[in-house]
Amino acid sequence: MSQIGTFVEAAPYVTGAAVAARYSVPLVRYYRADPDTRHSIKSARRARRSWKTFCEMAGMTVKQNPGWIAQATNGGKKLEPHILIPPVKTQPDRFGFTVYSRALPGLGLDDWDKNRKYIADQWGVRRIKLWQPQPGYINARAFLREPLEATVPSDLTTIAGQPLVKPGSLRADSDIVLMYSEDGEPITVNLAKSSHGAIQGRTRSGKSITVNTLLAHAALMSDVQTVIIDPNLGAVAPWWRTAHTVNADISPDGPTEILRAIRAEMDRRQGVFWAKRTDKITEFSPELPLILLVIDEVSNFTNWGDKKKAEAFRAELQAVASQGAKFGIRLWLLGQKLEAAVLSTSTRTNLTSRISHQVDTMEDFLHLFPDGRDLEVNAADRAMPQGIGIAAVHGMTTPVRARSVYLPTEHCWTIADAIVDALGEVRPLPAPKLTLAKEAAERSA
User: Fold this and answer.
1) Annotated binding site for ATP, which residues?
2) 88 CB-near residues (< 8 Å, 6+ apart)
3) What would the pLDDT profile of 169-215 be if each residue is shown by its tens digit?
4) What would the pLDDT profile of 342-371 be if each residue is shown by its tens digit?
5) Which candidate, 358, 369, 359, 373, places its Cα nearest to that of 399?
6) Which CATH fold topology does 175-423 show?
7) What is the pLDDT of residue 167?
8) What residues form the annotated binding site?
9) For residues 340 and 434, what is the distance between their CA atoms, to the nearest angstrom?
10) CA dist list (Å): 241 to 208, 238, 300, 333
11) Which of 131, 200, 150 is nearest to 378 (CA)?
């Protein structure tokens, strides 16, 4: 059989394989997506299909006369101009979809902006954000859901709370999505690449949900040791069995000793600088882990009644805040308001990642965001819903309004259970396990 015959016989199979590949990938992506992203995929497809008709009706077209070669080879007959429309590609996500397009001669961003309302109606979206990433290109962010109104569950568990991430599978350089901005952009923290941070907010403002996400990711990292100081037990309780060090003392004695131990570890790590000829530890391992130190209700210790003990705590805290980052220490401080009476200016200066949930007054907001009066957003808003805050994490130039990823405390317990099952527990819970269900069953029998 000739090669031509072989190619002819194989052509239908090759074509079928190409068609299957063309449509199977989107189908797999669709069925693996969450319900909100599926809705966005269908909406993006409808937007692409109706785009040509809309552009013709809205006048978003450009006439292009045929070239002289086409005219010369057409037997003397006049050719009609080509009608061009802006080309579009779409990328769906859980909040909507992003459209990527190119500007045409005489049809640029201003024309898109003029027709913004009609485009939103045609696409069936709530609003559209337009911008030019570079000359000649136009991006349109179409929102089917407002990110600040949407509850985004954590990727660490199912909706029912079953763990999805294997203990020890994450690393210190894994991005942690803490929040989503009002434009649907993820607010991420990378422990290996960032420095210290702070979270403030009044009671029931959503502060605990935000720190839950931070601690849950850290607990699943193989090269991170978590140290939690929490006099109220709110943040530390789920991780009591898994964290490297925990402390629930009300007085600053125990926390001060922990800070001194961390400073001793900093001194020990100075040898790494000489061995690796560097001035900052950037690579971590189980043998040389990143240490995440989280202190909740820090004002309880800095404003302790015994001034001598409070000053001792402040001094150790300042030493860790100013020098700890280069030794692989990441300090995160939590409180209802991190004012000057709680944290010194020098300590706050080292907190480069800052999140403020709802606070009582503008002055409270200014403690973390000194230029807050010049911002378009602030957290001194009594109408601000739980879970929403103002965030400016490492690498961000402008604070934005954002909503925390939803990871309730109950789900943190299931993650901790999975860690204990896989790796064992560091220490038992301070209270015996409740057996109320078992006792009730025995009584009923």
Assistant:
1) 201-208
2) 47, 48, 51, 99, 100, 101
3) 999 999 999 999 999 999 999 999 999 999 999 998 999 999 999 99
4) 999 999 999 999 999 999 999 999 999 999
5) 369
6) Rossmann fold (3.40.50)
7) 97
8) 201-208
9) 42
10) 19, 8, 24, 22
11) 200
